[in-house]
Amino acid sequence: MSERIVAIVPAWNEEGAIGGVVDEITAFDPAIEIVVVDDASSDATADVAEAHGATVLRLLFNVGIGGAVQTGFRYARDGGYGIAVRLDGDGQHDASELDKLLAPVHAREADLVIGSRFVDPGGSYRPPFARRLGIRVFARTVSLLGGQRVTDTTSGFVALSRHGIELFAEEYPHDYPEVEATLVALRSGLRLEQVQVDMRERRAGTSSITFVRSLYYIVKVMLALFVASLRRYPRVETAA
Amino acid sequence: MTPVRASIAGAIASIILILVVVELVRGRRLKERYALLWLATGAVLLVLSIWRDGLNAIAGWFGVTGYPPAVLFAVAILFIFLVLLHYSTVISRLTDENIDLAQRIALLEERLSRREQSQAD
User: Fold this and answer.
1) Tell me, what's the pLDDT at A1?
2) ipTM score of the complex?
3) Phi-psi region for residue A25, left (φ > 0), alpha (ψ -120 to 50) or beta?
């Protein structure tokens, strides 16, 4: 019953927030191994994370969020972990909500559980118009191509079964990964579930998505989704 | 008809391209696999420059009646596109391989430092 759990936390120049993120996960469950993937930060992110008791994977140069997260999935795969959760290093994900994400994985009902801000229409998250539009377009597209209704494809707050870990250790998109990864999971036959979560405002640092970049973001992601829908992915046998 | 001087200039340019590429490969500054497309470019342009009736005929097929050497430009541009597209695929592969290496090094370094620590204890 006691499957080992690893928490993967990608971080780039988050020395102000990473310590609190690690402490929160430890407070939620001290048995979870916390792996901070330092994407070649120029500040003290790695040292702070280590001082707070996390295992730190130090990337040699900046590989982007997708490559960083995948390093964590590979760590989980190689280390034989049964469950992985992923939280952002900026503190926007509330570790006390991890039990909601973990429950369907523990019950072997899902291989990918997405912490979504939009499952419950009364949720408190109200993004600016442009971002809301983008989120909705991605959600519709992924739902259409993946054959299952997905409400929040840009969430980086997820839990994965061993099947999910093995798939993402092999197949994970490199930049702006979450949307495409959701489609890859659906097309590979992973069982996807969504739970309502709240996300906090950033505590420190600046969001990596500026307004100028968001247009490039939308075009790149739509292209990636289109190409991903033409690809073949290995079918994962999820029968437990 | 193709002016003779245009043919001579085309032939000389093609020969220079071929010689430069061969010299770069000889000096190991260019790998054979990346030289092949350039050599093919030089060879095709050289043939079309020397074989004047051929160039005129091809120009006729494509309705280029005014100035057949325009076909030389078109072929040259086509090959440059091919070379650039080839480079894009090479860069993409190198990017993936680089990220893979960075990931493996990060994982190995963590294992190494963990082992060294447990030996020190």
Assistant:
1) 47
2) 0.87
3) alpha
Scan for tokens 């690690």, then name that residue.
A22
Q: Is residue A114 part of a domain?
A: yes
Total domains, chain A = 1
Q: Do B105 and A56 touch (CB under 8 A)?
A: no
| H, E, C per residue of A128-157 | CHHHHHHHHHHHHHHHHHHCCCCCCCCCCC
How many angstroms away from the CA of A65 is the closest CA of chain B?
11
Range of the domain at A36: 5-230
Determine, for residues A57 and B107 on separate chains, whether the beta-carbon distance falls below 8 Å: yes
Select from B95, B107, B109 the Cβ nearest to the Cβ of A74: B107
The candidate with the shortest Cα–Cα distance to A112, out of A170, A3, A31, A195, is A195
pLDDT digits (tens, 9 = 90+) for A212-228: 777 788 888 999 999 98
- The position carrying tokens 């000889």 is B26
Is there a domain that residue A238 lies in? no
Q: How many CB pairs under 8 A join A and B?
A: 39
Give the pLDDT of residue A64.
Answer: 93
B109 vs A contacts (CB less than 8 Å): 57-58
Res A208: pLDDT: 59
User: Tokens in use for A137?
Assistant: 């377009």
Q: What are the residue boundaries of the structural domains of chain B, listed by start?
A: 4-120
Is A122 within a domain? yes
Q: Is residue A237 part of a domain?
A: no
Give A52-93 pLDDT, tens digit per residue.
999 999 999 999 999 999 999 999 999 999 999 999 999 999
